């Protein structure tokens, strides 16, 4: 639904970036990411206009001379769209479209458009539409004069709504409906997380800057076939997979949407249901493009979003793409307590995956303990599972086929596996107290 008369725009675009003196980032760094965003949206870039200002112009953001330069390029190149690498006010968008005689889109609108293209699931499409409508609501006031006229015709004359008021009401109703649907999605996700927590299954969530290699890493570890591409925001919809980790057992790995500098607030709010997977995780793997010249700025951008959604989860830094850094070898960096804080690896080539699993295991298992179990032959499937987990230290059996197995794993993990198989601790030579579990759990 189109709420106001605007130029329809298209794919043929002119990019505009102004280096503001008050900004710390350099022109080249911001412009490089802007070009990637435009290409990710499918824009055919006809020209790039750069310039410098002390501060934005209140009316046009750029100065009148720069706008005249852009207008001339629009005519010369027959451009259909002008993209600004800045956040424009509704008034600035209106004024620029009037001067340039074509569609004008700011950075927020461009990112929203990319998200709209990428969303595949019902949930993802709901979230994107909610973000778009939230952004659009502030733009309704900038519509042309026809929106201020009352609806006319037989039975509609006299006091009543203007078209603008009608559009506002319809938009508000749609936003309310989308918010209600997403609240149901949030409740469903919460039920799923509660089930995993009840089963003592840890959750590890991948976060990071867009195009840092999260989906490639996810595929490498889980042997899944999640879509991964060398472009911004290739992944929007969260994907969950169960994997088995040594000494831990099943772990749920979550691939999430990538972040970007100055991620529109509307997107953070709309994707809160998805980002709650991050909030509820037992461990975050912050995937970083270690070969990027913008590494530090990208790390800071991700930390800002995590702070905005209130995440306090423990973080393991994963410096990915070391294959692009020359001769760097995979390794684990530890803190003063000997706990892993950084893993250097390459998801594309697979080097460092073993180190990554070791680090995750070290952070998730807590205190590994040794247990000795007496398993009768009828529990052979559980015995096989312990071997599959790599938790068996030694084993001997008697003539009756009863196995005496020495294990190393966490009490919570052992309790979870016994409970899943309906085995009371006492029947295998343990006590519920040893496992820190109530007898009622079995």
TrEMBL record:
InterPro entries: G_HFLX_dom, GTP-bd, GTP-bd_M, GTPase_HflX, GTPase_HflX_N, GTPase_HflX_N_sf, HflX_C, P-loop_NTPase. This is GTPase HflX. Gene3D superfamilies: 6.10.250.2860, GTPase HflX, N-terminal domain, P-loop containing nucleotide triphosphate hydrolases. NCBIfam families: GTP_HflX, PRK11058.1. GTP binds at residues 208-215, 233-237, 255-258, 320-323. Belongs to the TRAFAC class OBG-HflX-like GTPase superfamily. HflX GTPase family. GTPase that associates with the 50S ribosomal subunit and may have a role during protein synthesis or ribosome biogenesis. The keyword Translocase does not apply.
């Amino acid at each position: 639904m189109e709420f106001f008369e605007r130029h329809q725009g298209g794919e043929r675009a002119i990019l505009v970036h102004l280096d503001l003196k008050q900004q710390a980032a350099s022109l080249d760094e911001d412009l490089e990411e802007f070009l990637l965003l435009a290409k990710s949206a499918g824009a055919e870039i006809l020209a790039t206009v750069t310039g410098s200002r002390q501060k934005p112009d209140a009316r046009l953001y750029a100065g009148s001379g720069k706008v005249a330069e852009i207008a001339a390029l629009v005519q010369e190149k027959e451009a259909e769209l002008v993209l600004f690498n800045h956040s424009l006010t509704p008034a600035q968008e209106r004024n620029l479209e009037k001067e340039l005689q074509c569609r004008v889109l700011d950075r927020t609108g461009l990112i929203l458009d990319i998200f709209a293209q990428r969303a595949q699931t019902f949930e993802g499409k709901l979230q994107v539409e909610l973000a778009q409508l939230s952004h659009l609501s502030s733009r309704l006031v900038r519509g042309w004069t026809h929106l201020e006229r009352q609806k006319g015709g037989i039975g509609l004359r006299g006091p009543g709504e203007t078209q603008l008021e009608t559009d506002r009401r319809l938009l508000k109703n749609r936003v309310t409906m989308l918010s209600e649907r997403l609240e149901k999605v949030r409740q469903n996700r919460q039920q799923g997380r509660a089930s995993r927590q009840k089963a003592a299954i840890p959750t590890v969530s991948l976060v990071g800057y867009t195009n840092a290699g999260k989906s490639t890493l996810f595929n490498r570890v889980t042997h899944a076939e999640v879509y991964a591409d060398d472009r911004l925001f290739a992944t929007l919809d969260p994907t969950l997979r169960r994997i088995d980790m040594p000494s831990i057992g099943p772990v749920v790995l979550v691939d999430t949407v990538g972040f970007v500098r100055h991620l529109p607030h509307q997107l953070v709010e709309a994707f809160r249901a998805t980002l709650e997977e991050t909030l509820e995780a037992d461990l975050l793997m912050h995937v970083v493009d270690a070969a990027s010249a913008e590494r530090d700025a990208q790390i800071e951008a991700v930390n800002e979003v995590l702070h905005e959604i209130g995440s306090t989860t423990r973080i393991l830094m994963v410096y990915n793409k070391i294959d692009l850094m020359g001769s760097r070898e995979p390794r684990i960096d530890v803190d003063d307590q000997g706990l892993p804080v950084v893993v250097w690896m390459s998801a594309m080539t697979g080097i460092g995956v073993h180190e990554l699993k070791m680090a995750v295991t070290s952070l998730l298992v807590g205190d590994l303990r040794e247990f000795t179990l007496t398993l009768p032959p009828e529990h052979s499937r559980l015995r096989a599972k312990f071997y599959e987990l790599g938790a068996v230290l030694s084993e001997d059996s008697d003539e009756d086929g009863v196995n005496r197995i020495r294990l190393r794993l966490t009490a919570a993990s052992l309790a979870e596996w016994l409970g899943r198989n309906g085995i009371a601790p006492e029947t295998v030579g343990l006590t519920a107290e040893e496992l820190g579990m109530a007898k009622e759990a079995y």
